[in-house]
Specification:
Elements lengths: L1 H18 L3 H21 L1
Length: about 45
């Protein structure tokens, strides 16, 4: 589940760079996803 969310966020983040839409929001969501991923990996 987490891999799917990370993949979608990365795809949308790259599209944000290409088309420059909602850039700030995409970056914030990507950072949040990265933090959640790191926390889950540490807790395993």
């Amino acid at each position: 589940m987490i891999w799917t969310i990370i993949g979608i966020l990365l795809l949308v983040w790259l599209l944000g760079f290409l088309f420059e839409f909602a850039g700030g929001l995409i970056h914030i969501l990507l950072v949040i996803a990265l933090i959640v991923f790191i926390v889950k990996m540490i807790r395993k």
